[in-house]
Write a structure and sequence with these properties.
Layout: E1 3-7, H1 14-23, E2 31-35, H2 46-58, E3 62-63, H3 67-78, H4 81-89, H5 93-99, H6 113-127, E4 132-134, E5 139-141, H7 156-161, H8 164-169, E6 176-178, H9 184-187, E7 195-196, E8 201-203, E9 214-219, E10 224-227
Parallel strand pairs: 1-2, 2-3, 5-6, 6-8
Antiparallel strand pairs: 1-9, 4-5, 7-8, 9-10
Helix pairs in contact: 3-6
The structure holds manganese (II) ion.
GO cellular component, one term: cytoplasm
GO molecular function: bis(5'-nucleosyl)-tetraphosphatase (symmetrical) activity; phosphatase activity
GO biological process, one term: RNA decapping
């Protein structure tokens, strides 16, 4: 049986991603890698992480969308002042823009044709990412699933943003592997281990970009690899 390896919330931390794949001994011919969203924002190498993610997908990885990818698409397509301020000042979009050598203060006014082509390629790529991946055994999703709505009928926006309603309300048979909410929110401050909830939810966001760690959950063994 193939190992499944799940990683979430890379947030521009290219070096940690590379080191973690090595630590887990990832072999695309033997293993199924599942990336659970949030490749960009807050950390240093968003553009390079997206390029790496595309490469990993070509090698067979499943690549899901996170709420931060959704913010990049919205910022790029809408160019709306209030949203721009929120994304660049609160959600770490400024770091993503710097990785494209774009000034975070100008709403793409100074973007060159060359930069625009690269950003557009990444935006198109993000729009092709599904919001969840379901197998006979597991559900993988960035934020979580809505407790009373069938997965296939849930708005993708909910799947990438949901927190408490899912954490407290899920009671399905299938374990849900999710990111989005750093696991110190479950364990207590400063503890970034994978969180195994009593209600079949498995949180893997180790808050790498906040000084925590980048986790990799191996299934079905539930072995864990991480890079601090
Ligand atoms: Mn995140």
């Amino acid at each position: 049986m193939k190992r499944m390896l799940a990683i979430s919330d890379i947030h521009g931390e290219l070096a940690k991603l590379t080191a973690l794949l090595q630590e887990a001994n990832y072999d695309p011919n033997e293993d199924q890698l599942i990336l659970v969203g949030d490749y960009i924002d807050r950390g240093p190498n968003a553009r390079e992480v997206l390029d790496k993610v595309m490469e990993l997908q070509q090698g067979g990885a499943i690549v899901l969308r996170g709420n931060h990818e959704e913010m990049l698409v919205r910022a790029w397509e809408n160019r709306e002042e209030a949203f721009w301020q929120k994304w660049t000042r609160i959600n770490g979009g400024d770091q993503t823009l710097r990785s494209y050598q774009v000034d975070p203060n100008t709403i793409f006014a100074d973007v060159t044709e060359e930069q625009a082509a690269i950003i557009q390629k990444h935006v198109d790529y993000i729009k092709s990412m599904p919001a969840y991946y379901e197998t006979d055994q597991y559900i993988f999703v960035h934020g979580g699933v809505h407790p009373t709505t069938p997965l296939a009928e849930t708005d993708p926006y909910v799947l990438v943003w949901i927190r408490d309603e899912f954490h407290n309300g899920y009671n399905g048979e299938k374990p849900v592997i999710f990111g989005h909410t750093p696991t110190e929110r479950f364990h207590g401050e400063g503890v970034f281990e994978v969180y195994f909830g009593a209600n079949n939810i498995i949180g893997i966001d180790g808050g790498a970009v906040y000084g925590g760690r980048l986790n990799c959950l191996e299934l079905p063994s539930k072995s864990i690899y991480f890079i601090e």
